[in-house]
Amino acid sequence: MSRREIVSKQFQHNGGTARVEQDAGGHQHVTCSGCGTDDFAPGMAPALSKLVTDHGNQSTPR
Questions:
Q1: Residue 62 has pLDDT above 90, yes or no
Q2: How confident is the model over 20-60, as pLDDT tens digits?
Q3: SS in 3 state form for the chain?
Q4: Rounded CA gap, 27 and 7, in Å?
């Protein structure tokens, strides 16, 4: 797995942390350690939308 940089605010979700990460190739991924998800997103806007829609409700930003 390649190294990724966190490019969004982080949210507490399901006992873990949800955020958008960007890999060395510039691709965004929505990850959540609480849900165990790691989903590719086709750009920053879709990634942020998925982060807020799927993980932002009832969450606390860090």
A1: no
A2: 999 999 999 999 999 999 999 999 999 999 999 988 765 55
A3: CCCEEECCCCEEECCEEEEEEEECCCCEEEEECCCCEEEEECCHHHHHHHHHHHHHCCCEEC
A4: 11
